[in-house]
Fold:
Amino acid sequence: MIPQALPPAPPPPPVPALIIDCTTSARSADELRQLEVPYYRWFGQSTDPESLKTGKIDTSKLIDEITRKMGPDPSGWGMLDYEEPFDAWLELPPTDPRHVQVVSEMVRAIRAVKATFPKVKWTYYGQPRLDRWPMQADGTRKGWPEASPESCSKEIERRITTLGPIIAELDWISPSFYDVYENALFSGEEGRVMLANEERWRIEDARLGREMRRRRGLPQVPVLPCVSCVFQGGGRATPFRPIPVPELLSDQVQPGLAGGVDGFTMWSGVDFAVMVATLPPDHKLDASDQKVQQESRTAWQPFVPKAKTPIEWTDDMVRFELSQRVGDVVTAAAKAIKAAVSQRRAGS
Structure:
């Protein structure tokens, strides 16, 4: 008997225009479901605090945590996030033993989770990364538009050398495009320089991951950079203040699309921030969580019913209203991002 030809394999599912980490209300969750925006799961260092000191990853703890949160046979999208001291050690020369160690650990960890959870697409948060202000030959730093071509090329080549082995393991690539500069806090020439640099930096970073894969002859997996619907710290901005949608699009989304990204990853951590913001005064928090509580309460005061003075953050009505309003911020950003990506995909 002549065997019948096998039917053609179905085409791979399209890459989502947007994947998100969380929202804060049932109303927002329902809207995001209607938009068909999938979630990804994030796994950081909280279950492996020794890694903060040693620069080593306990893969058994990591796998246990993934199983606890996603089940024994999950699918979808997953992100690993190891920053301390990993980011600092990745900045060291590639021959430094600490650099060698963290590259080896990050490669080993992602290979372990890919082998254990093969139906999940895995990445590392914020990789690859480029300096926002490249180092010049004289030891100063300048923005990408003003920096010398040699210093820009040197920064790109440095990242290809030091981060290439990690990028080669990823199922998707997610550099961090967070906005840490609030446009309303800048003016004149300072604002112009900031905006020009932010745009060029994101475009170059969007291209970098694919360039690493191209040089190694590897599949050009999707690039889905991390953006945020609220300002993040570390620059000049009000952390947790919602980013106006036009500013979100112009500062984070449009440069990414100009750099050829496939879509976006939205990280905000607002579910955790809402929880911390509404804890009672006697709840013990470490210094990091105290900072989150203070910053989120400052940024979100306008969301609280005006009748509450001083604000009773533990009040059920305050908690409900806060979760609703923050959820609306997530939804509005998601709608705008998905529309921008869809428009680009349609060629307009």
